[in-house]
Amino acid sequence: MLKSLHIENIAIIEETDIDFVSGFNCLTGETGAGKSIIIDAINAVLGERTSKDIIRTGANRAFVSALFGDLSDTSIEIIKENGFFVDENGELLISRTITEDRGNVKINGKPANLAVLKNIAKHLVNIHGQHDNQTLLLPENHFRYIDKIAENNDLLFDYYKEFKNLNAIRKELSSLETDEGEKLRTTEMLKYQIEEIEALGITPGETEELKEKLKIINSYEKIVLSLNSAYEALSGNDDTDGALSLISNAEKEILKVDINSLENTKSNIADAKAAVESVMFDLKDVIEDNDYSKADAENIRSRLDTLRRVVLKYGGTEEKTLDFLQKAKEQLNSIESSDKRIEELSSLLDESTERLINKAAKITKSRKDAAQKFEREVTEKLSYLNMEGASFSVSINEGRYTKYGCDNIEFMIMTNAGDTYKPLARIASGGELSRVMLAIKSVLAGKDDVDTLIFDEIDTGISGRAADKVGVLLKGVSKSRQVVCVTHLAQIASYAKNHLLIEKSVSSGKTYTLVKSLSGDDRVNEIARIMSGTDITDNLYKSAKELLDRSR
After folding, report:
1. pLDDT tens figures, 389-420
2. CA 79, chain centre distance (Å)
3. Are the beta carbons of 126 and 452 closer than 8 angstroms?
4. Phi, psi (5° rounding) for residue 99?
5. pTM surpassing 0.85?
6. Among the four 283, 294, 454, 462, which has the fewest Cβ within 10 Å?
């Protein structure tokens, strides 16, 4: 529940603290005292959009914080899912600073954004005001009320999974069912691309290998001359012994000496001889290589030009070109096998459609069962609220399939016995509409996980016995939920457990708003003021006291 509210520099409120209790809290005060500002502040701390105009004149920032306690398990779970935790006292402190430029939000001291705040806040507080009457008039919102009564969360979740599955099948099927002309053009293009790449027989690294080979060919004679000289220096000629011959002679002389300390030397000279022989072998191999000696430089240049053109066309590198080739083959295979896939998808679509219809039928049945109970309970509440001849009805007709099912649901009302049922939007009286909304909200109260319900002047157009019964109804709702009600009716205020007075004063040319909790004579006087709006006489005081005594 909402335990306290702290407000700084919002409109005409410089600074105030408001403490709330469990059960029924009411706020009263003269017109213009600032009752609506309190609701604006609560909306702000719950993450609703605000204007910088809300900042008190002369201040550079506005601030509001709300402390919540005795949270439900559902609220605590939602808070955890959003990355926050209640403190060691089981409380949650939400604060919001509003400045000319921007503001900030904190949840138990940890920064948060407005989206997260709103997601948490909607599970903590529901604010019902005159704007809710307009929401209530929209038929597209009516299924939500019925689903709450029916507790359809599991059915709707199961249905929505199938709804998404069906749409995914339709999307894939639509992408495959292109016209035959487009399919033929794409097939021909893919075949040409595949043939062009495959005809080249590209291998990764081939371009660099060809460039190196061309480099060798261009200076082949010079290379061979150098390698021949190196080879002759190692092998020797008719006039001179080569390095290999000299190392061999040295090895023979060393092997004649039988000294232990020369064992490593004997091994090393053998390795040197083997290394020279290996070098000679490598040189001979290059010198006699026909690939270099007989290579056609023009052919290599032509191959490089062709590779460069094709590779640039299909990716820029040999690896990307081969990757393009693989994807083209896969796409061609997909098109060529699309007829089979279309047949498979058509079958899957039929199966999914049948499942969706069955799941929607379960939701419809659940809604119709819940609607009967809802009609009866709302009608009973309307009768209690002095609309004895009124009857509430829920119209449920089959419509198109959406993610919420296939039902067109609209609330209907018959305000007088013998009349015909008409859409709720046809109600002319604001007082009647307020009572219908209150009846619906009171029926839904037990189905709502939200701990705190705030009613902002929903008593517009109500008076007399009807107002008294609204007070009784709100008091009844407050037994299972915390209720905060802004009201201008003494009959309703008299039923509150905690009566808060909002007063406006002027000091040094500035307007201030204060909020204080009333008890004893102060509360009797406020009830009397609401009743008359004039000077409080002894009789008026007695009437107010009797009203309070009767409402306890």
Report:
1. 889 999 999 999 999 999 999 999 998 888 88
2. 15
3. yes
4. -125, 180
5. no
6. 294
pLDDT, one tens digit per residue, over 217-231 is: 777 767 777 888 888
Q: Are 386 and 466 in contact (CB under 8 A)?
A: yes
**Do residue 195 and residue 118 come from a single domain?**
no
List Cα–Cα distances, 353 to 157, 211, 345, in angstroms. Answer: 16, 62, 12
Residue 122, token pair as written in the block: 């909607």
Domain boundary among 274, 301, 336: 336
Q: Are residues 15 and 101 part of one domain? A: yes
Q: Concatenated DSSP letters for 170-233?
A: HHHHHHH---HHHHHHHHHHHHHHHHHHHHHT--TTHHHHHHHHHHHHHTHHHHHHHHHHHHHH
Torsion of CA 220, 209, 312, 321, to 10 degrees: 160
Q: What is the pLDDT of residue 211?
A: 86
CB within 8 Å of 449: residues ≥ 6 apart: 72, 74, 75, 123
Exposed, middle or buried, 111 (CB in 10 Å: 0-12/13-18/19+)?
exposed
pLDDT in tens, 34-87: 788 888 899 999 988 888 888 888 888 999 999 999 988 888 888 999 989 888
Q: Does residue 540 lie within any of the structural domains?
A: no
97 and 5 within one domain? yes
User: Left, alpha or beta for 393 (phi > 0: left; psi -120 to 50: alpha)?
Assistant: beta
Lowest mean pLDDT among 34-48, 137-151, 448-462, 506-520: 448-462
* pLDDT given for residue 292 in this prediction: 60
DSSP string for 14-38: EEEEEE--SSEEEEE--TTSSHHHH
Judge whether 408 lies within some domain: no
CATH code of the domain in which 111 resides: 3.40.50.300
Expressed as residue numbers, the domain containing 306 is: 183-336
Q: Say if residue 107 is in the same domain as residue 195.
A: no
Same domain for 307 and 214, yes or no, is yes
Instruction: Tell me how far CA of residue 520 lies from CA of 294, 495, 527, 552, in angstroms.
Output: 118, 14, 11, 13
- Total number of domains constituting the chain: 2
Is residue 541 one of the residues assigned to a domain? no
Residue 417 token pair: 């016995």
